[in-house]
Amino acid sequence: MPLVPLSERPPVMELAGINKTFAGGVVALDEMSLAVNAGDFISLLGPSGCGKSTALRIMAGLTQPTAGKIDWPSGQKAGDLGVVFQEPTLMPWATVADNVFLPFRLRGKTYNSVKDEVLEALRLVGLEKFQKSYPRELSGGMKMRVSIARAMVTSPRLILMDEPFAALDEITRFKLNNDLLALKEKIGCTVVFVTHSVFESVFLSDRIVVMAARPGRVVREVTVDAPYPRTEEFRTSADYAAHCRAASDALHSAMEAA
Amino acid sequence: MSLTDQLAPEKMPGAGAVDADEARRQARMRRERIARWVLPAVMLLATLWLWDRIVVWNEIPHYILPGPDRVWASLTGDWDILFDAALLTGRITLMALALAVIGGAGLAILFNQSKMVELSLYPYAVILQVTPVVSIAPLIFIYVESKTAGMLLCAWIVAFFPVLSSTTLGLNSVDHNLRDLFRIYGASRWQKLWMLQLPSALPYFLGGLKIAGGLSLIGAVVAELVAGTGGVGAGLAARIQEAGYRLNIARMFAALSMIAAMGVFIFAALSLLSHLLLRKWHESALKREN
Ligand SMILES: Nc1ncnc2c1ncn2[C@@H]1O[C@H](COP(=O)(O)OP(=O)(O)OP(=O)(O)O)[C@@H](O)[C@H]1O
Ligand SMILES: [Mg+2]
């Protein structure tokens, strides 16, 4: 996908004045507005409890906001998206291939009609040899790859990820970071990625939305203008360090303000 | 981008590389495997021998306590009668178990799909469960014409509840993230039930089934005792009762051992079924390397 400058990307999803107050009066989100544009890699970065998961659930249509509205200007239905949770969330009774087949199966497709897509998705995450394995035979990182393959198999335009790599070791996480960027490049989707790691958000995203807690809200947006594809060299570059400092500063000032 | 080199199976160490620790562990596992069968068998033989000695040394008359030799003689001598009786009891037990599965799992699914049905029926399922079947059975045999149907009903009442409650628990124990995922993909209620809830409930259901297997045998035996002998032919429990009236204690023991064997058989068969269905994916069937 050719790199479209941030300012020229058409919007796919717009959150306007979203508020979410849970029973008991916890304000998980207050006045959250965010335009997600086609091709963005957006990270939601913030301390625990600032409403990142809640925001993602609202985008996925799993939770209704108390106030505000969510718009899909490109006409995309809320249902056409892929989701990756913090846990791999695989069906233990189904093989790897059947797990990746799930989104198609729920749309009434037969396995044979989408076999190519399923195998291609598994190939992209490097697990084509494991299509007949059951989840319990895989390591944590491999399970997460299956989960990513499942989210991408239908080539959705928007993929939501909630701290997908938080439970993995650093080496695996770096590897999956690289793979995720390559995959995104390949299928040209938009990603909203929740993380509490400054380093991860800078490496992956071109827009970092910094949030603060009590009440959960967006305090600042940091743009990471380093070009893609980003490689391991980027991780050690001065550019990366500078962006990490900027994001970190934004996060700290957000937390002090809270 | 590909993980292939990282995932390539590691070179197996040569057979000679097995260290002393590993060898010790394997030897221990071998010993345990043999002991698993040998120890109970030795225990059984010792018990039979002691039983025999007690009878002989104390000169206990056989109408009070027969020795194992007499029980064995009864088992082989009365085999035709006992085998027919076992067939009858076994048939009632299995039919009751089948009905318990259909009724228990069916009700669980129905309750899961309709809260209203659950609210109206669940209390009665509990009442049926907590009322001792011995106290309901006499009534059942007054109103139910067919003895077979009466016995089935008794056995079913005892056996269906564990299937119902464990399947209900299973249907509600779906991983909440998977549930969300199904919602995101717009799964229908039917798809959710079939592809998500039923597989999630399977291990729970099988646990309930194992309990129900034993209970349906108990139900069948109780029903026979209440229904009494005569009529269509007698099952094992009725034979025990009948032999008791005639002070044929040896036959009582023989019939009792057959009931026990039947119970063990049902349990073993259901355990095997459970293992076969779960071994590929469920944690309970996972063989640890050490
Ligand atoms: N279902 C719920 N009912 C009541 N309160 C909730 C519920 N879900 C979340 N909250 C509250 O909303 C706030 C935001 O929660 P959320 O899970 O969105 O945080 P988060 O930013 O994802 O945190 P973390 O980084 O720990 O995952 C928290 O204070 C939490 O207690
Ligand atoms: Mg969260």
UniProtKB/TrEMBL annotation, chain A:
InterPro entries according to UniProt: AAA+_ATPase (IPR003593), ABC_transporter-like_ATP-bd (IPR003439), ABC_transporter-like_CS (IPR017871), ABC_transporter_ATP-bind (IPR050166), P-loop_NTPase (IPR027417)
Taxonomy, superkingdom: Bacteria
One Pfam family named in its UniProt record: ABC_tran
Gene3D superfamilies in the record: P-loop containing nucleotide triphosphate hydrolases
Keywords on record: ATP-binding, Nucleotide-binding, Transport
GO molecular function: ATP binding; ATP hydrolysis activity
Residue stretches making up the ABC transporter domain: 13-240
Keyword Nucleotide-binding: yes
Family indicated by similarity: Belongs to the ABC transporter superfamily.
Protein name: ABC transporter ATP-binding protein
Highest classification ranks of the organism: Bacteria, Pseudomonadati, Pseudomonadota, Alphaproteobacteria, Rhodobacterales
UniProtKB/TrEMBL annotation, chain B:
Pfam family name, one: BPD_transp_1
Residue stretches making up the ABC transmembrane type-1 domain: 86-277
GO biological process: transmembrane transport
Entry keyword annotation includes Plastid: no
Membrane topology: Multi-pass membrane protein
Bilayer-crossing regions: 34-51, 92-112, 124-144, 150-172, 252-278
Keyword list, A-Z: Cell membrane, Membrane, Transmembrane, Transmembrane helix, Transport
Protein's cellular compartments: Cell membrane
CC terms in the record's Gene Ontology section: plasma membrane
Main location: membrane
Annotated spans, Disordered: 1-21
Similarity comment: family membership: Belongs to the binding-protein-dependent transport system permease family.
Name assigned to this protein: ABC transporter permease
Species this chain originates from: Meridianimarinicoccus aquatilis
Lineage: Bacteria, Pseudomonadati, Pseudomonadota, Alphaproteobacteria, Rhodobacterales
